[in-house]
Request: fold
Amino acid sequence: MANAEEKKTSLFKVPNYPAWFGADTALLTGSAVHWIVISLMAYELSGSVTMAGWFFTIRGIMSVVTQVVGGAFVDRHDHRTLLLAQSGICGLLWLTMGILYATGNLTFMRFMLLCLSSSAIFGLLDGTSNAALITVVGPERYAEAESLNQGRDAAVRMAGSPLGATLYGLWTAAPFFASALCDAVAFACSLCLHLPERPEVKEAKPGVRAFLHDLIEGWQWVFASKVIVSAVIIMGLFEFGAFAMRQAINLEMVSTGVDPLLISLINVISGMATLVGSMVSSRVCDQVPVGRGVVLILALTALGYVPLVFSNSYATVVLSTIVSSLPMPLFAALVNGFVFSKTPVDRQGRTRAAVMTAIMFFGSGSGALAGELLPRIGFHGFVMAMLVLLATSVTLAALNPRIRAIPASPEWDSVSL
Reply:
């Protein structure tokens, strides 16, 4: 655990943090490289905007279903072992995808099956890395680490999406082989990770009944927290609207023939804005009151999408991307820092799974909604409908006394979940 002296040093001097950071970054890079390619291939192999929208919804549902049990699974098992399993299995999946395409055997159904398998692993094991992080840095430095992660995520997106689009242009199978290589790097970094033994892992009783007991206990603990429940409802509604907006933007650009490289540059721009926001967040995350900060950030993000009501030009998309991306690192540092620094280590997986499952539940249908409504009400009509939803979530946050009352991090000891 990090102590007071360690807090004055770089996180990279904290034991095990470099290995954790390497593994987590490699996994993220692998996802970033094939993210834009998955969107393009879903449309290419199916030939339908509607089918592509449903494809993303089915993937989301798969992640939600496996996320339900994933938290308990993570809490009951050694984090290092699970990181090795996650990177190893995902690496094999993307390697298989690349081989199938290279040999001319990748049909839409096989493509969907491999992507669904990846989503299942994501739902089951994706919380492992974040659950391990608090063991590595301690709750005192979690908000700081979250801010650093946001900047790292932005940098990876800036490099990963254009790289994926470039590789896709050179050879369609190349991004999948690149993702497999990234997962191999994550596997190697995970081998170097040495975490302290967790008593709850040794004490975990085997069997389905014991597993279900731990699963239910974790969910009961989460639902007993009125702060978490309120935050999940607000964030879920906002995430649904924001994710549907992003899917609509992506589908609109793909269907209107925008160059894949230009589409990938949207992620670069988002990454640059997020990186700037991360730099600001790392300086002010300990000073901003969580409650008021969350309301302000959600409002600013919603306003970032307003220009899309009037234009779907590439320049307008760029402007909206910048405005909506800038405040997100501070939002993540405030919300995640408060919730997960207050969550016991032995409940990290289940708490994260419960929160993410609820939020993903709200957002899982947004891809299908975008695919179904875009041809019917048009892009601008869809944006207006989603803005109403975003405004509703902002209003709920502003009117909720439990959310508004959360103070800045130096005073977190005085409040509870």
Summary: DSSP finds 17 helices and no strands in the chain. The chain has one domain: 6-414. Residues 1-7 have pLDDT under 50 and may be disordered.
